[in-house]
Amino acid sequence: IHFYKRSNCIAMELFCSVQPYAWGKVGSDSMVAKLAGKACQDFAVSQDSAYAELWMGTHPNGPSKLTETGELLSEYIAKHPEALGAKIREKFGDQLPYLFKVLSVNKALSIQAHPNKTHAEQLHAERPNIYKDPNHKPEIAVALTDFEGLCGFRPLSEIQNFLKTVPELKTAIGDKSDALISAGETGYEDALKDCFESLMVCDQEVLKKELLTLSSRLSSANDETSALFNKLYSQYPGDVGCFVIYFLNHLRLSPGQSMFLGPNVPHAYLSGDCIECMANSDNVVRAGLTPKLIDVPTLVSMLDYTCGEAESRKFSPSEESTDTCQEFDPPVPDFSVARYEVPGDANNYSLNKRDSASIILVTEGSGKYLASHEVTNKGGLTVVEPFATADISAGSVLFLPADKVLEVFPEDCPTLVFYQAYCNL
Q1: Mean pLDDT across the stretch 401-408?
Q2: What gap in Å lies between CA 267 and CA 244, rounded to an integer?
Q3: What's the rounded Cα separation, in Å, for the pair 314 and 59?
Q4: What would the pLDDT profile of 197-214 be if each residue is shown by its tens digit?
């Protein structure tokens, strides 16, 4: 295969932005830092700094730009909206509807939930200083390393058992716990809601006293939930979120496994590295592990109080997935994510052609890529007209306009692994 470059590229390489939030992994331990060496312009890792998030997209707080020209991706899209694809433009207007990220979590993020679209519009209208946009914020996380999180309410029997065996939790909640302890497997939601609300409005001095007592009692305990309590209490002493773990499922994801965070589902990221894709929104309603505002009335009224097993919160790839390409297609129009794992001895691999703009991130391996048009001539034959090729390696980020063809050619690696964010409309 003859590779050559052409300045009028179809697939455009991007320089992206790093967010140095304090909860991020430090120095070279951070997957964000490892990828940023290639993904960011003039990046040098400091072993004393936290590198929490790599942002790929058009969000004004961390916009990507074209490596070749320095032009913001948002400006390129404004000049060439056809790059988004007709379906995105019809559904979302002339803007990229998702933000693609890598997260490296060292310290737990806040327990939170996100409103649905209608609720987000209402909250934004009523309190625009807190809820700064009218959009929903569904998210999907795909583990890059062993990853831990909280997601959704535990099975009812587990919550009831904790209320019986953790007296400090029962004291913090008060009398409302009795109705939940005696609730059956159906019709428990109101009792769970009352119980959770009682915990969230617990007097701060009572809360701190009971958490301190529990911390002392569990100091040598080594079961999974007690170990999680001790870890979170060391990070957020006196925070109500340390009790919330007795209500929420503790998920462990292996690399390549996923969880989808739909509206009104309480969740938190605890540790590890992941790919994340989300709708363009900053609307967060917090429930703990945070010094920021906890909007208790909004939180309690909006949560989905359905109990379920932790395994049920894992999100499986679609049935069309193969060994090489796993497609995670959540029930929202804003985004989907595909994970590709191409064997290093493969001559080449063609990505599924998408009718939406996509962003591609290489996380492992090296090789080359070839971007091209498909051209159907008058004789009805389809031919590929190659446009550009360049080297790719871990941290390479590409913007691929809709309906374009991308081929990859692994070189000098056991596997070439990359992720693609797109819209499956």
Answers
A1: 92
A2: 10
A3: 28
A4: 999 999 999 999 999 999
Residue with tokens 């006196």: 238
CA–CA dist 331, 56 (Å, integer): 22
Strands (E), 174-266: 248-253, 258-261
Look up residue 305 and give its amino acid. Y
C-alpha 51: how far from its chain's center?
16
Distant-in-sequence, close-in-space partners of 228: CB < 8 Å, separation ≥ 6: 245, 250, 270
β-bridge mates for residue 259, sequence order: 141, 314
What residues have CB less than 8 Å from 390, skipping those under 6 apart? 5, 13, 368, 369
How far is residue 308's CA from residue 158's CA, in Å, rounded to a whole number? 10
- Phi and psi angles of residue 272, each rounded to the nearest 5 degrees, phi first: 110, -175
Nearest to 246 by CA among 223, 262, 263: 223
Active-site amino acid positions: 286
The encoded tokens of residue 269 equal 């990221």
Which pLDDT value is given to residue 1?
Answer: 46
Local confidence band at 11 (pLDDT 50, 70, 90 cut-offs): confident
Which of 189-203 are b and which e, b meaning 16 or more Cβ less than 10 Å from the residue's Cβ?
Answer: bebbbbbbbbbbebe
139-143/50-51 β-pairing? unpaired
Contact 241, 290 (CB under 8 A): yes
In tens, the pLDDT along 36-60 reads 999 999 999 999 999 999 999 999 9
Q: Cβ distance 303 to 164 under 8 Å?
A: no
> 189-200 and 156-165 are packed helices; what angle lies between their axes, rounded to 10 degrees?
40
Instruction: Tell me the Cα Rg of the chain.
Output: 23
The residue to which tokens 């000098």 are assigned: 412
> What distance in Å separates the CA atoms of residue 98 and residue 96, rounded to the nearest whole number?
6
Query: What gap in Å lies between CA 44 and CA 36, rounded to an integer?
Result: 8
